[in-house]
Amino acid sequence: MAGSLLNELLKVRVKRKVFVSYHHGGDQAYYDAFSKKFHDDYDVITDNSLERAIDSDDVNYVMRRIREDYITGTSCTILLVGKKTWGRKYADWEIKATLDKQHALIGIQLPTLQQGPNGNVTVPDRLHDNIQSGYALWLTWAAFTASAQACTSYIEQANSRDKKLIVNDRDRRLRNA
Question: Which of 5, 46, 75, 108 has the fewest CB within 10 Å, making it most exposed?
Fold first, then answer.
């Protein structure tokens, strides 16, 4: 009896907690699609629009709340990058808090993110630094959401990245572009 109970307990899969950051004004539909598709696989935490959730002009207070209320307890931040994400101060602050905690970071290129003539896209500077250093993963929406197995594989890959690759020395963005 005890052996079968142990076997049943071992079959229970623990949901990995992930924090999803995105521009609420432009990319809500992608967050909703991600959350709906993977709600059985991940405990998805979102900022619920920090502009409304944390009513303060004190940058240090807001950063502490981001770390304590949203990033702590997760293992990975997934940043959904649409056409206006590059200039959002809270996206930058959430990336900074993620890197301060040495959590995994994945940038997801949404279909709304337009490529320039040379094939480049505009992403938040702090994310760019960490893509260039090899710390952050940079994936397309289609690749990341192809299946639960693909998503899990990318999250595990991001969590295994060497913490020495983290680049987090930029000043915080103080206003939206």
Answer: 5
